[in-house]
Amino acid sequence: MPFTDNTIPKRFYHGTRADLNPGDLIEVGYNSNFGTGKPLSWVYLTGTLDAAIWGAELAAGDGRERIYIVEPTGRSWMSPT
């Protein structure tokens, strides 16, 4: 049986060009940084730094690329429903 340690918290990242401050929330309903720019009903986060870097590189806008360490909040954050 593989060893797992649930005492070590999982770290999540969000890559963007948005300039956020500690305590700011990344919420649904804002325009997407990708593709059509339509309002999204989800927020992307990742468990890998490489994916967050890729997200920041692809984000729309002229601001500098930023990577944030984020904490998922709210109801059913692991489920799309």
Summed up:
By secondary structure, the chain is α+β, with helices and mostly antiparallel strands. It is 12% helix and 12% strand.
Top keywords for this entry?
81 residues; two-stranded antiparallel sheet; globular; ADP-ribosylation fold; alpha+beta
> Which CATH C-level class is it?
Alpha Beta
Overall outline: globular
In percent, how much strand structure appears in the residues? 5-15%
CATH A-level architecture: Alpha-Beta Barrel
Low-confidence stretches: none
Work out the helix count.
1
The CATH superfamily bears the name Rifampin ADP-ribosyltransferase domain
Mean pLDDT: 81
Biggest pleated sheet: 2 strands, antiparallel
Proportion of residues in helical segments: 10-25%
- Number of E-state strands: 2
CATH topology: ADP-ribosylation fold
Backbone CA Rg? 14 Å
Description:
This protein is 12% helix and 12% strand. The chain has one helix and two strands; from the N terminus they run βαβ. Strands 1-2 form a two-stranded antiparallel ribbon. The mean pLDDT is 81.
Furnish the topology, listing elements before pairings.
Layout: E1 12-16, H1 49-58, E2 66-70
Antiparallel strand pairs: 1-2
